[in-house]
Amino acid sequence: RHDEDGGPDPEAHHGHGRGGMGQEVKRKEDRRFITGRGNYVDDIKKDGMLHCHVVRSPHAHAYVKSINKERALNVDGVVAVLTAEDLAEYDLATMPTLMDDTQDVLVQDKVKFQSQEVAAVIATDRYIAKDGADKVEVKYETLDAVVDARKALEPDAPLVRDDIEDNDSNHIFTWETGDKEATEKAFEDADVTVEQDMYYQRIHPAPIETCGCVADWDTANEKMTVHLTSQAPHAHRTLFSMVSGIPEHKVRIVSPDVGGGFGNKVPIYPGYVIAAAASYVIGQPVKWVEERSENIQTTHFARDYEMTGRVAATKDGIIQGIDVDVLADHGAYNAAAQPSKFPAGFFKIFTGSYDVPAAYCKLDAAYTNTAPGGIAYRCSFRVTEAVYLIERMVKVLSQELDMDPAEIRRKNFIPKEAFPYESATGWTYDSGDYERALDKALDAVDYDGLREEQQRRLDADDDKLLGIGFSTFTEIVGAGPGKQCDIAGVEMFDSAEIRVHPTGNATVRIGVQTQGQGHETTFAQIVAEELGLDVEDITVEHGDTDTDPYGLGTYASRSTPVGGAATAVAARKVREKAKSIAANELEVAEEDIVWDRSSGAFQVKGAPDRGVTMKEVAFASYTNSPANEEPGLEAVDYYDPPNMTFPFGAYVCVVEVDRETGEVDIRKFYALDDCGNRINPMVIEGQVHGGLAQGIATAMLEEVTFDDNGNVTAGDFMNYLLPTAMEIPHMDTDYTVTPSPHHPIGAKGVGESPTVGSPPAIVNAVVDAMAHAGVRHIDMPMTPDRVWSVLNEAGLTL
Ligand code: MCN
Ligand code: CUM
C-alpha cells in the first residue's frame, strides 16, 4: 500500500532506526520506575517538614455548631489546628471551582457531603497529625440528605446549597444543544422510534497514587513552591496565584512523577490550599497526602448521568433523528473540570459515527449531598457518556428492526468521502473511515462463525449464552482551539521548547504533563523524526513551572493533538534555522539545500554525497555561526490547534453468560483503534490495554454507592471493586491509520479511546446474549446478581 500521495505506506512500521515516528521505542522513563527510582510527591522530604491530616465530617449534611481544638493542641507534636475561621483571615476559607462555583476549603457553616473537610491538624509527623485529628471535637446538627439527582429536584428535597444567594432549589443549570424542531419533525415522520432509559453510574478514577502535595513557603525569597500531584501544573500555578494573591512568578508548581491521574488530578482540592496556607502561616514545609478512602470519598468522581435516548428511523434502519434527555448529578458543588464554555463537557458528540440529520439534547444538572465532580476517569469530557448512549441506542434500534447490529452501523456511518463532516450538533469531524475499520474487525473475529455458534448454543439449550457486542465509536480530543476552549479564561493551547546543544543532543521542555502516558519517550520520538537526532540523545522535561513553557496540561487526550503538534512545529523551526547554518557550512545558497528525512541530514541539491548531519549543524551553530543568524540552535512554539481531532475505533466483545449464576465471561475483546499517524505503537498498545481494563471495570465492577443518609457505601477497595489481572481477559489490539489532516504530524489522541469506547461493546454483548428473549437493556455494573435477575425475568435461568 501507498498513501494517497504515493508516499510510503503509513500503516507500515517506519521511522529510520533513530527512534522516530512509528518505532516501538522502549519507554525511557521505565528504567527509573521498574528500579524503584521514581520520585513521587510522597517521596519529597524537606527539612522541618510538617504533616497535615484533615478532619472530615462523618455526616453528609449537617451544620457545624462548634469546633473545639483544645484536646488536639495538647497532643505532643501537634503544631496547629486550622478551621475555616483561621483560613478566612487570609481570605482562603473558600476557593473558586473551574465552573465558577465557590467551594469551602474548610466547612464554614454546613457540611454538604460525607467526608468533607472540616478542620486540619498540622503536626511533626503523619501519625501524630492523625492522632490529633481524632481529638478535634466537632459538634454537628444533622440534616436530611439527598444523594439522588432525581429526588434532589423534587420540591420538598433538602436544599444542598443555602449558601448561594436567593437559591431555593437543587437545580444547577439546563443546557440544550441541537435543533429541537427538526428533531421533533424527524420523530413525527419516522417509520419506527425506540426509547431507552439508561444510567451511567458514578465511578471513580482511583489512581494508584492518591492526591497530595508538599507546600513550602520560603520566607526569605517570598516564594511558594508546591510539589503537587497535578495533571496541569501551569494552570494550577495561575489558579494558586489568583486565589492566594502571591504573584505568579513567586509560585512554583512541580509535578514530579505522577502515579496515575486519569482525570483525578485535574482539579484543585482543599487539601492543597490547606497545606499551602499552613506553610505560609507556620513558615515550614507542610505535606498533605490523602489516604485511599479519602481519595475515593472526596475527590472528583466520574459520570453519574441518567439518560433517556430516543431514536427515529426508517424501516430500513436509516437513523433520522436522535433525542436525548439527561439528568446529571454534579454533587455538592458545580466543580466539573472541563473547558468553561462546556457545562456538559463534549457530550454533544452524542450522534457518534453516524450521519444523523437531526439531533437534540436537553440536560439538567443537580446538586446532591455527594462529593463534587463529574468529569474524570478517561472520559474526554463526557464523551464516554455520549458514546455509551449512541452505541447502546444503535443496538436497541437493531433489535426493534430485527437487523444485524453490524449492518445497521454500516448503513448509518458517516461515509469516508463526507469528511470534513459537520455534525447536526455543530462539530467538524476532521477525518474518518469507519467502514474499513468495521470490516477489518468483522474479519478478525470471524463474525459469521460467532453468529453460527450463538445459534448452535440456543438450539442445544446450552447452559451458556453467547453474546456479541459492538462499539464503533468516534472520540473528540485535543482541546483547544483556544477561542472555544479555556480553563478559567486561559486559552487551551500548548507549548514546546527545544534546545539543541553544541554536541548534538537536545533538551525538550513541554507544557503537558505525563502521569504514565510515556511522554518522555514519545515526545522525544517526534523530535527525533523532525531533526534526525537519535531518540537517546533527546531528553524531555515537564512538570516544573519555573523552567517549562506555559501549557494547559494533560487530560482529555490532548497531549499529542496539541502538545505533540507544538513539539513538531518547534522542531521544524529549529530545522529551518539549521538549514541556513547548513548552507553556510556547505558554502551554497540556502535554496540549494534539501533536508533528507531518511538520513537526518541536509544535502546539496543534486549532489547527495555533499551534506551535513544535524549533529554537525548543531556544533556549527555554536562554533561557526553564519553572519546572518544568531548563534545557538533553539526554538519555542505555542500551538493553538485549528480544530480537535476525531480518533475512532471498532470494538467487538464476545461474552458467555452463565444461565445458572449470571456470571459474564468475556471470551474475546477485539479493539481496533485509529488514532491517525502513530508515534509509538507499543505505547499506544499499552494505553489501549490499560484503558480497556478500566472500561471493562466500568461495565462489570465499579460503582460509588451511597445509602439514603449519604454515607458512602463503596468508599474503599473492599467495596469499590477495582479490576485485577483475574478479571481482565486477553485483549486483541488492531489499528487502521486515518491521519488528521490539520495536525502537523497527522496524529490524533488515543489515551482515552479504550475507556470511552469499550463499555457499550460489553453491555451490547450481554444484551445480545439475551436478545432472543426480548431483553433490551441492563445497567452497569453488570454484576452476576444483576445479570441473573435479568436472565430470570426473561425466563432464561436454568
Ligand atoms: N500516542 C502515540 N501516537 C498517537 C497518539 C498517542 O504514540 N497517534 C502516544 C502519545 O505520544 C502518548 C500516549 O500515546 O505517549 C497517549 O497520548 P494521548 O492520546 O495524546 O493522551 P495524553 O498523553 O494526553 O494522555 C491523557 C489520557 C487521559 S486524558 C487519561 S484520563 C489517561 C490516559 O491518557 N490517564 C492515564 N492514559 C493514562 N495512562 C497512564 N499510564 N496513566 C494515566 O493516568
Ligand atoms: Cu476525563 S479524565 Mo483525562 O481527561 O485526564
Can you walk me through this structure?
- By secondary structure, the chain is an alpha+beta fold.
- Among the domains are: 30-38 and 494-639, 2-Layer Sandwich (Aldehyde Oxidoreductase, domain 4), CATH 3.30.365.10; 41-146 and 209-298, Aldehyde oxidase/xanthine dehydrogenase, a/b hammerhead (Aldehyde Oxidoreductase, domain 3), CATH 3.90.1170; 430-479 and 643-798, Aldehyde oxidase/xanthine dehydrogenase, molybdopterin binding domain (Aldehyde Oxidoreductase, domain 4).
- Helix content is 27%, strand content 25%.
- It is built from 19 helices and 33 strands.
- Strands 3-7-1-14-11-12-13 form a 7-stranded mixed sheet, sandwiched between helices. Strands 9, 10, 15, 16, 17 and 18 form a 6-stranded mixed sheet that branches. A 4-stranded mixed sheet has the order 21-31-32-33, sandwiched between helices.
- The chain is globular, with a radius of gyration of 28 Å.
- Bound molecules: pterin cytosine dinucleotide (MCN) and CU(I)-S-MO(VI)(=O)OH cluster.
- CU(I)-S-MO(VI)(=O)OH cluster binds at residues 231, 261-263, 266, 375-379, 555-556.
What's the structural blueprint in terms of helices and strands?
Blueprint: H1 30-34, E1 50-56, E2 62-68, H2 70-73, E3 78-82, H3 84-88, E4 94-96, E5 102-104, E6 110-111, E7 117-123, H4 126-134, E8 137-142, H5 149-152, E9 171-178, H6 180-189, E10 192-203, E11 212-218, E12 223-228, H7 233-244, E13 251-254, H8 270-282, E14 286-289, H9 292-298, E15 301-313, E16 319-329, E17 358-366, E18 373-374, H10 383-400, H11 405-412, E19 421-422, E20 428-429, H12 434-445, H13 447-459, E21 464-471, E22 486-487, E23 490-491, E24 494-500, E25 506-510, H14 519-531, E26 538-541, H15 559-586, E27 593-596, E28 601-604, E29 607-613, H16 614-623, E30 634-639, E31 648-658, E32 664-674, H17 681-700, E33 731-735, H18 753-770, H19 784-793
Parallel strand pairs: 1-14, 12-13, 15-18, 16-17, 25-26, 32-33
Antiparallel strand pairs: 1-7, 2-6, 2-8, 3-7, 4-5, 9-17, 10-15, 11-12, 11-14, 15-16, 19-20, 21-31, 22-23, 24-25, 24-30, 27-28, 28-29, 31-32
Helix pairs in contact: 10-18, 12-13, 14-15, 15-16, 17-18
This protein binds pterin cytosine dinucleotide and CU(I)-S-MO(VI)(=O)OH cluster.
